[in-house]
Design goal:
about 260 residues, mainly alpha, sugar transport, SWEET_rpt
């Protein structure tokens, strides 16, 4: 029979895999940004929230804060590195106003982490107190990470389109929330249970929206494509018409210079 610690570690490893999938799920979005050299209507908020969330949980998992939490460090350390890559791409292709906002938030998050780490490691003198302080911060920022797409959900409802709400991000968020909820229940840890339980509900809401607005989105995109093709056809017809009128004018005025052009 598998003991509790072994079961918890197994679930934690599964949680690590799903978490990395969650962090990598926006990759197609950033490939699109890179190819189009524009951030379009994509928001940096989910990635900024994910970055500070990962940094807080790395601090939470340190042995001097919350012992026996190496799996918490591994998943969130990987996540922080991936989010920094995303934000770097966003900074390259964002406009000046967006770029300034992202830089300001990143600097603020780093200052916050320095202050939090200093306070926790100097003022609090035992792991129980340190766990409580960082755990409360973890709950707040984890909920912020899961709630960050709410602004995108508002856009989805307003436009009746899920074009800018990546499906795999929502799906991975649900898997991640469920895995870490299970991890926290095996050896009860409210600081991990609360935010991941709430995160699972947010992810379900996003998937419901995706189901509702998927077909309208396909129709909108098809209509835009048709309009684009029609627009190109109209341009071609107008150019051909102008060319024919010019040729007729030249012939009527005895201009045959084009005959001698190679």
């Amino acid at each position: 029979m598998v003991d509790i610690d072994t079961a918890r570690n197994l679930v934690g490893i599964i949680g690590n895999v799903i978490s990395v999938m969650l962090f990598l799920s926006p990759a197609p979005t950033f490939i699109r940004i890179w190819k189009k050299k524009s951030v379009e209507q994509y928001s940096p908020d989910p990635y900024l929230a994910a970055l500070v969330n990962c940094l807080v949980w790395v601090l939470y998992g340190l042995p001097m804060v919350h012992p026996k939490s190496i799996l918490v460090i591994s998943t969130n350390g990987s996540g922080a590195a991936i989010e920094l890559v995303y934000l770097t791409i966003f900074l390259i292709y964002a406009n000046n106003r967006q770029r300034l906002k992202v830089v300001f938030v990143i600097v603020f998050e780093l200052i916050f982490m320095i202050v939090l780490s200093s306070v926790v490691l100097t003022v609090a003198h035992d792991t129980k107190t340190r766990t409580f302080i960082v755990g409360i911060m973890g709950i707040i920022f984890n909920i912020m990470m899961y709630a960050a797409p709410l602004s995108i959900m508002k856009l989805v409802i307003a436009t009746k389109s899920v074009e800018y709400m990546p499906f795999f991000l929502s799906l991975a968020a649900l898997g991640n929330g469920v895995a870490w909820t299970a991890y926290s229940l095996i050896r009860l840890d409210y600081f991990i249970l609360i935010p991941n339980g709430i995160g699972s509900m947010f992810a379900i809401m996003q998937l419901i929206l995706y189901t509702v607005y998927y077909k309208p989105t396909k129709k909108q995109m098809a209509a835009r494509q048709a309009e684009g093709e029609l627009g190109l056809s109209e341009i071609a017809v107008k150019r051909e018409s102008r060319s024919n009128r010019q040729a007729s004018f030249n012939m009527n005025n005895g201009d045959n210079s084009d005959m001698y052009k190679p």
